[in-house]
What we know:
Elements: E1 3-10, H1 17-28, E2 36-43, H2 50-60, E3 64-69, H3 74-84, E4 90-93, H4 105-113, E5 118-126, H5 130-146, E6 161-164, H6 165-173, H7 181-187, E7 192-199, H8 211-225, H9 228-257, H10 267-299, E8 306-310
Parallel strand pairs: 1-2, 1-4, 2-3, 5-7
Antiparallel strand pairs: 3-8, 4-6, 5-6
Helix pairs in contact: 9-10
Amino acid sequence: MKKISIVTGCYNEEDNVKLLYEKISAQMSQYKNKYEWELIYIDNCSTDNTVNILKDIASADKKVKIIVNSRNFGHIRSPHYAILNAYGDAVIFMVSDLQDPPELLPELIKKWENGYKIVLAQKNVSEESKFMFTIRRIFYGLLKNIVDDNTEQIKQFTGFGLYDKQVVDVFRTIDDPYPYFRGLISEVGFEKAIVKFTQPTRKRGRTKNNFYTLYDMAMLGIVKHSKVPLRAATITGFILSVISVMIAFFYLVYKLIFWSSFEVGIAPLIIGLFTFASFQLFVLGLVGEYVGAIYTRVDKKPLVIEKERINF
């Protein structure tokens, strides 16, 4: 009998983890004579009662497995590590705040049964704030336009989906201590199925996303999959240099012709100084992002260090 592994990451989700378990159990009960299944929680060193609640669930149901991290390893490394530790014939990843609806599981499994190795859940409508949804849409559009390889970046895709064992085996061969999971999905290939859904708002608890985590994810997607920003900065710098030389030559000629009456003032100097200084700082920060990505790649730190695991 084939096995389906369901993986979810959590951090301070004491209000949601039990309800998520109940909803997943209700959906998977229809497959009790067809598939084995397991639910793997990876806890990112929660400071509330999340781990104790998970241990109570795991003691009553051995299908529930828990990995507790020794510290908070972030929203990128921890979920990826959990996926690599899932050995089902299919692995389903979803978040634990119930914004990835468990009611979508049968549809994901059906697509997998039809032969798709990757089934992606795409939120075509979201009940979150229109501002945030618009910002995300702009980012996905930007990323799609600047990727410089043949990979297709999926819009409004957060990682929620089903991945065949063959796909997860490929992930295990990729040695990347800080992976951009959404980009890896495009890089590994395989025929994909898209399941669209309406993303509900968070009903319980507080979101752990903030400006930094969203910025981190956005920059990771760009530096992992595109050299266009670096090349655009180089081209822009070259164009500004040419313009500067032309302006300097113009002022030289102007000064020679109108030697005694030449008065431009200090305003052009200040404007030029701040323009070039801001451009240089922007380019320096951009290069720093790429250097940081390289350093992380060669640093070879583990994705996660476990404190304990239960029911494995």
